[in-house]
Known about the structure:
The protein is an alpha+beta fold. It is 40% helix and 21% strand. It is globular. Aminopeptidase N is involved in the degradation of intracellular peptides generated by protein breakdown during normal growth as well as in response to nutrient starvation.
Amino acid sequence: MTQPQTVYLKDYLPPAFLVDHVALIFRLNPSATEVVSKVNYRRNPVAAAGAALELNGHDLELISISLNGRLLEQSEYQLHASGLSLNDLPDAFELEIITHCNPDANTALEGLYRSGGNYCTQCEAQGFRRITYYQDRPDVMATFDVRIEADKTTNPVLLCNGNPVAAGELEGGRHWAAWSDPFAKPCYLFALVAGDLACVEDSYQTASGRDVRLRVYTEPHHIEHCGHAMDSLKRAMSWDEARFGLEYDLDLFMIVAVDDFNMGAMENKGLNIFNSRLVFASPETATDDDYIAIEAVIGHEYFHNWTGNRVTCRDWFQLSLKEGLTVFRDQEFTADNHSRAVKRIEDVRLLRTHQFAEDASPMAHPIRPSSYMEINNFYTVTVYEKGAEVVRLYQSLLGVDGFRRGMDLYFQRFDGQAVSTEDFLAAMADANETDLSLMQNWYDQAGTPKLTVSMDYDADRQFCTLHFTQSCPATPEASEKQPFLIPVEMGLLLPDGSEQPLQLLGENVAQIGSRTLLLREREESFIFVGVAEKPMPSLLRGFSAPVELDYPYTVEDDAFLMSHDSDAFNRWAAAQRLAMQTLLALLDGKEPDGSVATAFGQLLADDGLDAALKAEALMLPSEADIAEVSLPADPGRIHAAREQLRCFIASSLSEQLESCYRDLSQAEGLNDEAMQKRKLKNVCLAYLVALKNDKAIAMASGQFHTANNMTDQYAALALLADCDCEQREKAIQAFEQQFEHDANVMDKWFAVQAASTLTGTLDAVRLLMQHEKFDLHNPNKVRSVIGTLAMRNPVIFHAEDGSGYRFIADQVLELDRLNPQIASRIVRSLMNWKRIESRRSALMRAELQRIAGSEGLSGDVHEIVSKSLC
Ligand code: B3K
Ligand code: ZN
């Protein structure tokens, strides 16, 4: 195989030809689908004169090419491994290309493939080149007309982007449908679906009074599980109108649920395609977290209609332009509909655990990378979640109204265009007549900035000074970093817990409540006056910037902030720090300090806190979080320390935990309050079961067998799956019998077993892979079994004998032949070998080397492995 090439942002050139219109005919056939593509090209005035037309193509069988109706000889074009070049072309012409592709043989799930007997597509980022020869790049935007022909019995439903325009019958039991999409779009937003599908239908009237038909398509037996998805869609449509003044633009909006999908969902124009696990929901089959995630992802894909589709990316380096912005929008959608504080905590937990680790890894990259080998490797927590944090910075700097002004100008300037992150920055700055040039450093530099803070208190002058120093570790793209623009939302708490009014030296009046300090330099100090008592700083409230905060808080300081901070996020952050300090002390061989149990007990008893915030605060930092701050990490000792602390808290607070559990056991329904109560109840149960005594196991088993909702049933199952007891086997069997016909629920059954820390899990996983419902071709199954073991089971993955690493490397090699994108996700579990203690580190490295030395590796896996071994 040829070595994958690195693509550089600095080499960007506009396309040689522009496209006005694309007309496609699909003659669907499982093993040989014919695609007739008729495209009107004209020379791009800004491209080099006389440039060739370079069309991308992958795994296509070329049947014919005609230029303005004349069939071309083979000598008139150059066919090569990755496409087709044509020279000496007129300034404007029509090119007709006929190709065949094989949907049945497409296990990579990119381009046109089959899932459950139905046809579907996935074109982002570069899947359209597996459908036809085209300039497969997002800055080529065109209107599309599509005709689909297929067997009528097996494919009664034929769907494409845009609006349906005509349909009819054909000979031989076939039929056709024609679709037209009036909005110019890049080809990555193309989608086609054909199959035997049922749909739920509803309608939505936009703010300006237009009626839009809404449809959610699925295999017929799941139709009764689509109500929540439809409700979520309507909520998303009305939220985008209210918050951003953005209306839907076509007459029809469709969502199709498919079982075989590489990621969560895809925002194709007018025809979103979803992984079925993010569509189907009923209280018996979906957890509360599933309900919230479905609403968020339906919102996310819908919001892309403006941020991504109407205004798209110039090239794939700009991915965060649409993804960071759209994640920010979906975060706000959830925050506006549920608890803002809980949403913020969950987003920050995800960022700190996964993105901070990525930023410290060999794959560290800026939110706008400057090079890549395989673009699919850059759909990362950095581009998405850190990207969303950077968008949030604009809102912190400009306020909600200023941010809205920036968004309005962005759409006014760029609707229908393919643009860059600089264009977004400029719209935000111009709309608010302010200089935001320092924001550019957030796009160009990788690494998590560290903010070191110290405080001096001068009792005589009543001055309190905060000193800030920012630094950023070296990352592959740069060792020296320019300072970042960092808004620090903060307050000063007085010993009685009240807020010190904030007045900086030189100001005339004091402000009550939080204020935001803007850091622009490597070192800055701020002097507050009129501070009569030594205060406790509450820093980075609401996590006002994606940085690592370093302030010398003691255990007592954190206990104080946990119970007094007016900022809910910082109460959570203090609880996490307190737990982390205790965990690090345990790793140092110390005994658990009682203050953590006391503080957690007070928090649990606090009537002023809602149940979900208590639950979030009581959840200990994950083993991955601990690993990041105890380098080189020893996963075995980290697990033991965390278990020790869980048991210590559980035994110190057992009565309180049990009575809290019992008080909350009646939570019913899907409202926020009931969901919050279930969350806290299950956190209490998890602590109790950590003690592994008969009473706690009986409570979990009782909950499992009597639960009337998946949240409680699944929480109990997960706890039992980690206990070596007879109730474990009973629960696992009962769950399988109850849900064997529901693929998405079976994924949960697979995952709890693969997450078990019991010895023997690796053998159990091998057996699970022989289970009749397991299928290596199905990404959800792979994620549930192999992904869970690699990413969510540090005990088994990091087994001292290297068996976990060897198993995962074997799976990566096998998966890579079927589906490189999925293999490339799994192989990342080995990437951080340099941060692990030396024995395991050597074993991980050896597996990476074994993968690197294998024949026929995909570009996807090659990029991760080669960068990891650098
Ligand atoms: N834009 C898609 C992700 C495509 C991933 C391609 N490897 C879903 C989303 O972010 O909305
Ligand atoms: Zn997205």
